[in-house]
Amino acid sequence: MSTQPTATFTAPAAADPGADGADAPERDVRFRSDVAVELVKSSAADADVLFAARVSTAGEKSLDEVGTDAERSAGLINYLMRDRHGSPFEHNQFTFYVSAPIFVFREFMRHRTFSYNEESGRYRRLEPVFYLPGPERKLVQEGKPGRYVFVDGSAEQHALVETATRRVCTEAYHAYLEMLEAGVAREVARGVLPVSIYSSMYATCNARALMHFLSLRTKREDSTFPSFPQREIEMVAERMEEHFARTMPLTHAAWNRNGRVAP
Amino acid sequence: MSTQPTATFTAPAAADPGADGADAPERDVRFRSDVAVELVKSSAADADVLFAARVSTAGEKSLDEVGTDAERSAGLINYLMRDRHGSPFEHNQFTFYVSAPIFVFREFMRHRTFSYNEESGRYRRLEPVFYLPGPERKLVQEGKPGRYVFVDGSAEQHALVETATRRVCTEAYHAYLEMLEAGVAREVARGVLPVSIYSSMYATCNARALMHFLSLRTKREDSTFPSFPQREIEMVAERMEEHFARTMPLTHAAWNRNGRVAP
Amino acid sequence: MSTQPTATFTAPAAADPGADGADAPERDVRFRSDVAVELVKSSAADADVLFAARVSTAGEKSLDEVGTDAERSAGLINYLMRDRHGSPFEHNQFTFYVSAPIFVFREFMRHRTFSYNEESGRYRRLEPVFYLPGPERKLVQEGKPGRYVFVDGSAEQHALVETATRRVCTEAYHAYLEMLEAGVAREVARGVLPVSIYSSMYATCNARALMHFLSLRTKREDSTFPSFPQREIEMVAERMEEHFARTMPLTHAAWNRNGRVAP
Amino acid sequence: MSTQPTATFTAPAAADPGADGADAPERDVRFRSDVAVELVKSSAADADVLFAARVSTAGEKSLDEVGTDAERSAGLINYLMRDRHGSPFEHNQFTFYVSAPIFVFREFMRHRTFSYNEESGRYRRLEPVFYLPGPERKLVQEGKPGRYVFVDGSAEQHALVETATRRVCTEAYHAYLEMLEAGVAREVARGVLPVSIYSSMYATCNARALMHFLSLRTKREDSTFPSFPQREIEMVAERMEEHFARTMPLTHAAWNRNGRVAP
């Protein structure tokens, strides 16, 4: 608002070299084949499902469930999962830090029930870290759309992917730096950067949204509904699922037992 | 799913007398003029805003903000609020237990960014507790729609409201019990219950959604945008705001300073 | 905003007798056993699913699908439904007008993907129309919570429900009028009105949200996941489903064929 | 589901050369400096705001507003906008086709109230079309984060951006084709493609969500709250705003008059 007194706001850039360009940029382009997922904070336990579910039949007495041992109520959690009573799984929260290539974030952010904050290519010089498929990454797609199967690539194919990725990403990053050094704005210069460049973000969700995400972003034989995620987002999802299983073990088990269908 | 093995689920009703009707129902109708709000659990601090905001300029280094003292960054929080950068205020969570009349819940549940679980009139015999406006409740509405002003009621008006409320609610509740005792289903019998009957629920949200709720459900002279909430939901909102102010004091102060506009 | 020039806004109440209380209120309480659902407007066709789905493989050429005959693409719609590709079912819209008892609206508005506007008990004198279960309404609930079965009521039970409903609703409405006539604000006086009073609203959604709603609010043997809706909201849902089936017949058929699971 | 009969689904790829790789790919890389926005379909008129708003005071009589001339009710629309009554602006729908660089889509898809379907780099060979900033694009960023100002670039800077963009994008696309021709899966090969490559999508929203989007993605002196969008998404937003202004002129005017704050 124009009549608002200006806040005495010290630019957050002060402590972030990448943001003001004053420091010498790193020129060495690095390649990774993994992703990073940390559970930054959470407020989630199986007992959170119970007080929420029990309020329907117990009213105020459901408050007694807060913080209790959920073990004896595994049956109730399984029942809620099986019959898809979803809302009791929403009173909890997970905040993940994720570092992965931009093409993974593009798929991730289609999930509209999460909250996101991501590193900005407008406010910060992006770092020279790119994704290179590892040797175990299946490179060849067979079959029809919607039912693709991936098989191993040959040594030649792996070599080609590695050579091409290293060459293009390195040239692109150097062109990016050249533009920055000539005074071109970061948001313009970044146009040349490949989608395999890494970014970082915080993603926050509740268990219901998380189960929905996992059901779509992991490929499992025991799923009621099949999903065919790209391997790289599945790598992120698998790490998220480990945190989920550790934090809400009864809920995770019930979801698995019921075909990995989000309630 | 029909092929799913049936879970060995013991009905949650077992521990809830109201749910199976086996216990003797309470016949004495009670009246209250207040609401109850408890902060059941939360995972929220001003520092949660900071790591989320700083990832845009600091990337991975923003992880250093997790759990820090936010005091020195009040300027950043104020800047985010003023310019309405809303997403950093989403990585936190508040779960409230609320006990209030049904007509309050009707307004409350229009807020679609919250998660809800409420006592069920289908699965449980509702308790004989009704809302009666207290002596300080302004009873008379003056002015035009959208710009109503409320003024005190006369002694006669208060007496009339009290007499009518006590009479109708008592008769309604006794008719409800009569139907239940004759074997009529709770979901049918409850049709006669007035909207002033109390219910209870869990409502979960993040700070951004909470500020939006509070901006619409409290009436304050210093708001940039005027709101005209019904007094009873405002009573709930005021209690929620106390919890918010205590949990995220810098965020609450910045929101107040910037006209109570949700970012 | 305080600096905003005041709009020359003529109160909407002018044309609405109920809103200003100037007209003589109706004292005769009426009872209904049905609900009303109208499809006020829609922008929805099976072809809308096709352009949205085809953009993934055809890019700009998918524009050719807009407005085409979808018949030859029933297989694609079925495939999307079966494998739960949900987003192509979102590019369409239905706006319903619904008139039903408040206890139905309470359940309806838990669906957070719809848009709502409802008649206001704060801005308008509510009309004396209440719900009375019809002779075909099963009155007796048997079995365990979560797996209730409803069976017919006896003649005595029906007589009791009718007598009690008529008596309580009539007394309540007259108490409401008495308070209004004594100058008590509508929002206070309405506290005595039973949840069986009718209200009206507009509810807007897309086909994906609609299928989710219908899967939870209709009880069908052929559903993959069982639902046990209260009969009165199911009456609303059945009317909505008729409109859906007529507007997007291939989508409706594919949803039915795949266990009525929302994609 | 495993017990589901397999649909006789002919792969959608059949009609889409890019999807099966059978056709000869285009090798000539093209550059554009514009974006494309089409209003594919809409169900939106100022009158839609009126019936939704009037139901609160007029109940069923609000149905008379459906399809009427809204002109005489401009005051009501302005009042709703000014006091931020948002829900009446949700009963309408716009579906846009957008063709723009991926870095624009990345910002666009942060808006979680829209529905999206986008061209897929997994299911289709992406076309060789890239974004090159036009001569009028300001290239140099000055000032502090959160308050940047953009100024014209020099001829040298423009030349550098053009040379670097053309070189990197061309090499990247040829490396992409080389990998595809060697049998590498599209989803792997695309890793080298720069974020300036064009994609296409359908984006569907209602007027309330659209106003929120426009308030954040256009930079205007007369906005109550300042926004600093990247120019390229602003180009998309400006085209969307033209369609909005033409389809709901009274709503657009009221929004402009009230500081471009989404209600």
Write the layout of secondary structure elements.
Four copies of one chain form a homotetramer.
Chain A (H helix, E strand, L loop, with lengths): L16 H4 L9 E3 L3 E8 L2 H13 L15 H9 L10 E9 H7 L6 E4 L10 E3 L8 E3 L6 E3 L3 H27 L4 H4 L8 E8 L1 H11 L13 H17 L1 H9 L6
Parallel strand pairs in A: 1-5
Antiparallel strand pairs in A: 2-3, 3-8, 4-8, 6-7
Helix pairs in contact in A: 3-9, 7-8, 8-9
Question: Main traits of this protein?
Answer:
38% helix; homotetramer; 8 strands; globular; alpha+beta; 263 residues; 16% strand; two-stranded parallel ribbon; four-stranded antiparallel sheet
Number of strands of chain A: 8
Helix content of chain A: 25-40%
Uncertain runs of chain A: 1-21
In the sheet with the most strands of chain A, the strands line up as: 2-3-8-4
Task: Give the percentage of residues in beta strands of chain A.
Answer: 15-25%
Derived from helix and strand composition plus strand pairing, the structural class of chain A reads alpha+beta
Overview of this protein structure:
- The structure is a homotetramer of 263-residue chains.
- In chain A, 38% of the residues lie in helices and 16% in strands.
- Chain A has 263 residues and is of the alpha+beta class.
- In chain A, the strands form three sheets. Chain A has a four-stranded antiparallel β-sheet with strand order 2-3-8-4. Chain A has a two-stranded parallel ribbon with strand order 1-5. In chain A, strands 6-7 form a two-stranded antiparallel sheet.
- The longest helix of chain A has 27 residues, at 155-181.
- Chain A is globular, with a radius of gyration of 23 Å.
